[in-house]
Amino acid sequence: MRLLFKPRDQQYLGKGTLPFGNFEDSKQWQPITKCLEMGAEQFPDKDMFRVANAEGVVTESYTYKETNDWANRVANGLKDEFGINKGDKVGMYMLNCSEYVASIIAIHKIGGVQVPINKDEKGERLAYVINYSEMVALIVDPGSLPFMEEIASTLENLKIIFVTGEPGDVPEEIGGIKSLPFTTFDSFSDANTGIPVSVDDMERCMFTSGTTGMPKGVARDHGGVIMTVRAYLQQQGVRSEDTLMSVLSLGHANAQVMCLFSAMGAGATAVFFTRFSASKFWKWAGDCGATGVNMLGAVAEYLWAAEPSEWDKKHNIRIMLGSPAPRNLDEFQERFGVRVIDGYGSTEMGMVLWKDPEDHRPGSSGFPMEGYYVELRDPQDPDTVLRPFWDPYEDPTPPDEAKGLVFIKPLVPHTTLNEYFKDERRTREAFDNEGFFNSDDLFARGIDGRYYFSGRFSRIRVSGENVDPIAVQDEAMQYDAIQEAVAVGIRLPNVADDEIKLNITLKQEAEFDPIEFSKWMAERVIVAMVPRFIEVYEDGFPVTATQKIKVAEIKEITDKTWDRSTTGLKFSARK
User: Fold this and answer.
1) Please, what is the angle between helix 33-42 and helix 64-80, to 10°?
2) pTM for this prediction
3) Integer Cα distance of 70 and 190 in angstroms
């Protein structure tokens, strides 16, 4: 299939060219590592990626040739010495680092399946991802060792663990599983592996929030990487002289595909930071020479709330992807001197909607990207397609009857979700008989053809993480004092992300301390799943005449609602 590569206004284009083409013809697609290999030949001394330390200072830099050679040594070691074959699962559980980048590329090169693990997973959930994915090898950083030691005795298929950092600090084994320093790969050949890998081959099994209390594995092929890279280069105007910056974890699709792989596809440079800092963001951007960056969730609000500084416009960032864009878009763009482009995507489908940078219509996520067919359906009757009737020019607020669930049909094979790994039921439920994927997200479509985000139907998004409220309440109900639990998402004014409110009833004569409960929860789940609000219903949940919980009522913040933010109790993601 040939996809249109749209021209861009010159002001939204980066300097340079697209040395490997614009990926218009899907029949010609190859895995993204072919771009790295061509770059290593055509411009071997150009920076492929850089990595900053915890203070935001760029301390490591690797050229296209160095990156390709390093990834080849890791790839050849995995296949020749440790028996990792095409299709085998290899996990990564660490903070952003140069070894993370080399590992992702190496796994691609041997036709393996990468399994990036959220750096904040721990305990039972961490063990579940490792076991359920059937990974045979895992790469971790030194900070992950305590979490691994805690669960090592429960791991089933894992044969070997590679540890980054100083070789002398690496234990010989972790809970009976052999461990080796990552530098073990230094002695292997730096020649390209020659293993045939195509866009039809499985590229990743990325775990996201589950509906049964545990994460679910999103299985996608190499074609999905090229699909999103093609769109990113088109919409953001990325070219070979650009420098793409990411403060997001390489355990997420955004940092991988829309920073590392997009830089690779454009012959550009990627820069990775280990964390996000609202107060230092623009300084970091200025220091590393970034020209493009992505935002997720409430990042825009954090940047806007930060104290003004000399760095607010002292940078070269031309364009930002905001998902969603900040509510005070005009003021944000004026203060920071950038153009923010809104879009919509998911781990399962990639980037489905994208706004054109030339389009200054406020509030929308733009139009469907080439390669997708999108329609809105009635949330109460998903077989009914909604026809657009709402005019956003006359009324900026869509009526409820204009809001529908986004259903997505991929038009190019091997570009979106293949399956929820080893979960036939969940895969079957996600698609209808015509191959449309139910996004579980609500949009309104105007008669102008644009799509306007309205909310999430069942899942919620906290601090940039998709969180399943059922998983939160299932976890909470394992706490001794809790009888029943219902988790809901609450959208506070002028904030893009949700907050979790946990509504509970207690067992007879049980005592409950929300601070102790929150600490208990934080030891078991990622930080985003720890509720901010908790309310105890001593007389049971409010119900309708048919004994259904009044969801609107339990979503309210009352004088009986405990707010963790007023206590000073904070939980930080692993850094």
Assistant:
1) 130
2) 0.85
3) 7
- Residue 536 pairs in a beta bridge with 504
d(CA 462, CA 439): 17
Give me the residue label for tokens 């330390």.
Answer: 53
3-state secondary structure of 139: strand
- The separation between CA 270 and the C-alpha centre of its own chain, rounded to angstroms, equals 17
Q: Structure tokens of 418?
A: 């293949």
* CA gap 130, 153 in Å, rounded: 12
- 342, 365 in Cβ contact below 8 A? yes
**Crossing angle of helices 98-109 and 64-80, rounded to 10°:** 60
DSSP SS3 for 14: coil
Q: 320 has which bridge partners?
A: 293, 340
The tens digit of pLDDT for each residue in 465-502 reads 778 787 888 899 999 999 889 898 887 876 767 899 99
Q: How many angstroms separate the Cα of 57 from the Cα of each of 15, 268, 465, 573? A: 25, 20, 26, 20
- Tokens 């930071």 appear where? 273
Distance CA 241, CA 419 (A): 37
Name residue 503's beta-bridge partners: 486, 535
485 within 8 A of 504, measured Cβ to Cβ:
yes
The beta strands (E) that lie in 113-157 are given as: 113-116, 137-140
pLDDT 10s digits, 324-371: 788 788 999 999 999 999 999 999 999 999 999 999 888 899 999 999
SS (H, E, C) 318-378: CEEEEECCCCCHHHHHHHHCCEEEEEEEECCCEEEEECCCCCCCCCCCCEECCCEEEEEEE
Query: Degrees (nearest 5) of the Cα angle 275, 280, 284?
Result: 80
| pLDDT per position as a tens digit, 90-146 | 999 999 999 999 999 999 999 999 999 999 899 999 999 999 999 999 999 999 999
